[in-house]
Structures are given as structure tokens and as C-alpha cells.
Amino acid sequence: MTPQQQHSALKAAIKRSIIIMDAVADKEARFQCMGQVWSRATSDATLAYGYNEARVRIVPTAREIGQAETVGEWLAWLGHNHGGVPLLVSWAHDTPVWRLAERERCSERTIHNRIDRSVAFILKEFGDVDPQIEQIEEGPARAHPPNFMVQRPIASDVHAVGQHGKCWIDGVGFMLRGKRLRDGQDKIDRVLHAY
Q1: Last residue of a domain, one of 105, 127, 149
Q2: Three-state DSSP string of 4-46
Q3: Are residues 108 and 188 in the same domain?
Q4: pTM > 0.90: yes or no
Q5: Are 32 and 145 within 8 A, CB to CB?
Q6: HEC profile of 69-115
Q7: H-helix or E-strand containing 173?
Q8: Which helix (H) or strand (E) holds 195?
Q9: Quick one: which H or E segment has residue 64?
Q10: Residue in 81, 69, 67 with CA at minimum distance from that of residue 121
Q11: Most buried of 21, 52, 145, 194, CB within 10 angstroms?
Q12: How far apart are CA 120 and CA 130, in angstroms?
């Protein structure tokens, strides 16, 4: 397997293992002062009171639980050395990338790169394979560029247009201050054409 194939396979295994770790809740965590790293707090009323769509309950196999424990050790190592575990957990639970980018105050491309680099750190440390992923750090950007002018046009010194000028637009008629000029001519035309 090439390093990129190993990277994508490990990425899928990490995502599945995080979901498995969340499905297999720790029964003794209530006796400790801290919860699991991968447990997600419910802060939205739609999630807390069941207003959202129904989800299928995951019943993991013993093999998946064993794999999830191994991945949990890798995530603990990653959290101590490089950080980025909350980002991986949010990504594994299908949080939209735009929301993660908004939370981290960076671009969506940077979020994807941080996830890939976190997986690459694990692969390099525990698999002795370096997939060579370059670091991309971009600031926040608009998701969609505006499709309208947000700046006022600069008035030219050569030809100034009057503010209250009346102009003719073919097919529409006379326009005044951005609205169709109703000077009564259309009423006269209707009356004349009615007889």
C-alpha cells in the first residue's frame, strides 16, 4: 500500500473507532471527576429533547471494540503531543466543516488539512510511514463571495449623473429615482384602447 492509501485507511478506522468509543459508554465514568474525551455534550434543545431525526443505535462487535481501544491510545498520545483530538471527534461525528472552520477561526481547507495532519502524526509515530502532508494555515474566508456590490461606485469627475434625472429604458418606459415613472400616460392609453 502507498502512504496515501494507508493514510486514508487509517482515517476511516479512526472515524469509526471514535463513533464506537462514543457508543460504548464508560459505566464507571460517573465516579470520576472528568468525562471521556470523545463524549459529546448536548447543548442544543433539538438534540437534548429528541426533536431531530431518529438514529440507528450502534452495537459494536468485540473486534471493533478492541480496535477502538487501540485508537483511543493513539488519540491520547496525539492529545498529549500535538493536540487536535476535539477536532477529530467533531469531524467523526459529522459536524459540518464550515461550523468547525467558524469555531477554529480558519478556512475549511485548513480544517481538512489539520485533520489529515493529525492522522499523519499517528501514522508516522505508530506505523513508521510518513505520508508527507504539507501544512496549510489560512485565515477565515467567506463561504460564498457576494454577488452584489457592497462598495459605492466612485463618482467620476468627467461626467456626473444628476440625482433626479428622468431616463428612458427600452421596454420599461421612463424611470425616475429607480422606480417606473407613472405620469398618467398609461391610464390614458388604457381608456383610449377600451373604446
Answers
A1: 127
A2: HHHHHHHHHHHHHHHHHHHHCCCCCHHHCCCCCCCCCCCCCHH
A3: no
A4: no
A5: no
A6: HHHHHHHHHHHHHCCCHHHHHHHHCCCCHHHHHHHHCCCHHHHHHHH
A7: strand 173-176
A8: none
A9: helix 62-81
A10: 81
A11: 21
A12: 7
C-alpha cell at 191: 381608456
The boundaries of the domain holding residue 115 are 3-127
Q: Does residue 135 lie in a domain region?
A: no
Please name the residue that has the C-alpha cell 508516522.
124
**Helix (H) or strand (E) run with residue 186 in it:** helix 185-194
- Please list the pLDDT of the chain residue by residue as tens digits (195 residues): 888 899 999 999 999 999 998 888 666 665 555 545 555 555 566 666 666 666 667 788 889 999 999 999 999 999 999 888 999 999 999 899 988 998 889 989 999 999 999 999 999 999 888 888 888 888 887 655 555 555 555 555 555 555 556 777 777 777 777 777 776 766 777 777 776
Residue 49, C-alpha cell as written in the block: 429533547
